[in-house]
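Table S4 entry, Catalase.
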Amino acid sequence: MQEVMHAVCGAGAGDKLKDMAHNTKDMTKSDRLTTDYGVKQSTADDWLKAASPDKAGPLLLEDPFARERIMRFDHERIPERVVYARGSGAFGTFKLHESIEDLTMPRRGSADTVRDVRGFAIKFYTQEGNWDIVGNNFPVFFIQDAIKFPDVIHAGKPEPHNEVPQAQSAHNNFWDFQFNHTEATHMFMWAMSDRAIPRSFRMMQGFGVNTFTLINAKKERHFVKFIWTPDLGVHSLVWDEALKLGGQDPDFHRKDLREAIDNGVFPKWKFGIQVIPEADEHKFDFDILDATKVWPENMIPVRYITELELNRNPDEFFTQVEQIAFCTSHVVPGIGFSDDPLLQGRNFSYFDTQISRLGVNFEELPINRPLCPVMNFNRDGAMHHTITRGTVNYWPNRFDACRPATHDEGAYVEYAQKVTGIKARLRNDKFKDHFTQAQLFWNSMTPIEKRHLISAFSFELDHCDDPVVSSRMVQRLADIDLSLAQAVSEKAGCEPPTEAGRPNHGRRAPGLSQIDFFPGSAPTIASRRVAVLIADGYDSVAYDAACAALVTAQAVPLVVGPKRTKLAAANGSSSAQPDHHLEGLRSTMVDALFIPGGAESVAALAGNGRALHWIKEAFGHLKVIGATGEPVGLVEKAIRLPSVGVSAAGDVCESYGVVTIRELGPESLSKVVEIVKKGEGFMERFFFGVAKHRCWERELDGLSALSQN
């Protein structure tokens, strides 16, 4: 930077400015899109395909315009990852519960809390080579054809004239693209939903997004989508909480994943597939190869066949996570591709990108290297590690060395798909339906999720200072649902639409709402972070009982006090060492709050503004709060809402997720743990509330303003 400034401001500055002026351009309406070598392009939306009006076909490698766009984009930012700038990883095991040999034949691993789509990728080290499933935490994407990938990412990145804003989509260019590119409509509904601000990597669903194929030993082909569903259920942060965490702990998700594995509470996902026989490809009112569409579960059920468990943290993050390279083109025998035009482009782009990120020999890095034997004639290049002895590096050769494998020897053999069509840039009519599934998503949301969507759109459009952008987006929302558009227009200060852009079909589908994924028939608090708030003079009986019960349930109790030095119990015979003080850990970083009794402790907390804020903020973020004995009054003081009830003496009360008991009583530690195991009393109700993630009733009944955008 110093050299550039010297060249402009020092000797010869006039000549340099003339050179810069020569290279400076303004985009106008009279300009036409060209390649880098000056040839005008007729479209930037469709890769050249061998297709027909009613069927997508494979992309053609001969398309020079598409290849230029993708390769230029792949090489824009090196070595930074162009799309996903942050992330984490872990190692695990994959357990097959149900064979699918009837379908396939393989023999067989920015701030965290911003609103965004998140990657969800798995690398399997199999006997037949590496298989990568490269997906997202949403089942759909913004674009149908890979040629549009540079545009959608450019629109979402900081604006080019000022490099603002970082790590959010609330700006003119993003929403200008969304309006002008209608195929993104379904995806931006997902991006504005709670799915875009997950509570944890461990509570995200994962989706392969694209349509792949499975080929069995009989050479029969099925279309397939891959789905990962977490055992803990699907859950998100609330918006105010996500904003605060972005400043308080930008690495919240990374630390959360590592903490759970270190504590032996291994994250688990069920792995499922949706399958469509090849003969049924055209039996639906949407194109199954369209990456902007879901396969509704009421039409194509999910078949859960395996379990993924992450049980080992990396030893060194850079070499084992940052250097990992995923490619959608990495498949093994029995897994194939489809004519999904986004997938076909990803197969080209991902491999090209990894070469730019890590070098031509990226697959020789330890984290990427297959565990099965590797032998070929690829040679040389930067960082080539393999030493191959011999005198030939080509095929065929006079020694018959390293010959291609036969099918019986396990070679990957492509499915003999018949391809017919014309060479053209086109899409069929089903690909042109951009609103039906956006309406399906909206209709399938619960009232609380609809409120959050309205708030999210209102926040985003509030940051668009060009009124054309926000008013157009309200029009687009009217194509989905008139009530949605009117609610957003009122908050965003736009002219409210009076008519729907198109009728809402009213249909719903399971699996789209997060509430459909409550964590199983036996809700668990395993791995949940529960703050235990105490000061000097705390009730050691209630404290010991609660901490023991939490540990027994595999939760993570975090003791928080006014200071991080030992605190004395009321009886003087014991003490507790806080994990954090009130300023070091905030309520945003935990899932629930428990306050044991002790008159001296409660008096100290009641006189501490941060302690009162802890309780108030936890309540505002819909978290479960438990209190026994004297702190019941402290909770009443902090919340100041008469509609939230508390218990009478000796009784357990649960009201809007506030679980209280005036007197804990003389129960010993073993007695309290026994109560928990039997599902009785205070701790059982408190645990059940934590397992439900949040008390959404507070927000629905207007008791919590903090949780809304």
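The first strand starts at residue 49 and ends at 51.
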